[in-house]
Amino acid sequence: MTKIGFIGLGTMGGPMAANIIKGGHKVKGFDISEKLINAHVANDGIAANSPSDAANDCDFLFTMLPNSEHVKQVLFDKNGAVETLKNSAIVIDMSTIHPLETDDIRSKLNDNNVSMIDCPIGRTSVEARLGKSLLMLGGEKNDIIKATPILNLIGDTLKDCGGPGMGSRMKIVNNYMTTVLNVLSGEALTLARAVGLDQETCIDVLSGTAAVKSHLTTTYPTKVLNNDVTPAFMVKLALKDLGIAVDLGKKVNTDLDLGRASIETYKHAMKEGREEQDWTSIFLSLQNRAGLSLPDSIKK
Length: 300
Ligand code: NAD
Fold this sequence. Notes:
- The structure is a single chain.
- The protein is α/β, with parallel strands linked by helices.
- It folds into two domains: 3-169, NAD(P)-binding Rossmann-like Domain (Rossmann fold, 3-Layer(aba) Sandwich); 214-298, N-(1-d-carboxylethyl)-l-norvaline Dehydrogenase, domain 2 (Orthogonal Bundle), CATH 1.10.1040.
- The chain is built from 14 helices and nine strands.
- The chain has helices at residues 13-22, 34-42, 51-55, 68-76, 99-111, 125-130, 141-151, 166-194, 199-206, 210-213, 219-222, 235-251, 257-271, 282-289, and strands spanning 3-7, 26-30, 46-47, 60-63, 90-93, 115-118, 121-122, 133-137, 155-160.
- A six-stranded parallel β-sheet has the order 3-2-1-4-5-6, with helices on both faces. Strands 7-8-9 form a three-stranded mixed β-sheet.
- Strand 2, helix 2 (34-42) and strand 3 (46-47) form a beta-alpha-beta unit.
- It is elongated and about 65 Å long.
- Bound molecules: nicotinamide-adenine-dinucleotide (NAD).
- Nicotinamide-adenine-dinucleotide (NAD) binds at residues 7-13, 30-33, 36, 64-66, 70, 73-74, 95-96, 121, 124-125.
- Nicotinamide-adenine-dinucleotide binds at residues 7-13, 30-33, 36, 64-66, 70, 73-74, 95-96, 121, 124-125.
């Protein structure tokens, strides 16, 4: 039986700890909420009275906390986990935190001869309860292999993101995209409503184009990711349409924040001479601005 410590028994952590217990393991849980510790005990978990108690003699210590300051607190403050963690233990941090904080925490744990996997979670508490989370793993291969039987009790989709810190980075890229798409979806439906379109019709039409199917799975693979920026749809025409949308929005009292910001992005690409390239060449322009190298064949 593997011994697990689990700190942070909230919306996500509570059901995850319960699923590890169901998998036949001993889980010593800690949370600052007594109510949540009681719920953990009701699920056949063991109550810990501090982070160091939860970590004592465990093989894996999970943390599922709001932000990096809470993770640092439970690991490194007085009565923190490092006081009792054995050298062979692996800390698995599932909290969504700044990747540079992840690097700092890993480095401090390594100074204490403890290794770490960053393992933020995709999907929500609905899937967490079902043991069907998506796990974005950042760690040494051997540690990930050791942890996999336990991780399989939490998630049905384990993604090795390519080394220490990469899980945390992947999560932020994922959440950047989903949080911005949330705003974009709201803006599009607001514009639709303001100009009198029926919402259901609108969603039906958008579902048949890159608007909903997504650029990453439709336009990008055939064009820019295929090193081909010959125009399927030109940058200058995309900018023209975007301008019309933002102007139409103004006329119906709908301020399209993302639309206005995106006009600037397209204008940058135009300044680089990409006006007659495929609209996916926006990706090249953005990489250029970030100082990243581009494939020779489509450098421009
Ligand atoms: P939550 O607030 O429900 O749970 C966090 C728990 O940490 C709480 O029970 C709180 O009491 C406990 N806690 C805080 N400080 C503590 C400390 N010092 N010692 C011990 N326990 C402490 O939040 P959540 O929804 O479970 O989210 C946890 C993390 O997972 C966050 O980083 C969040 O961004 C991320 N996340 C959440 C979801 C979701 O759908 N809820 C999905 C993916 C990722």
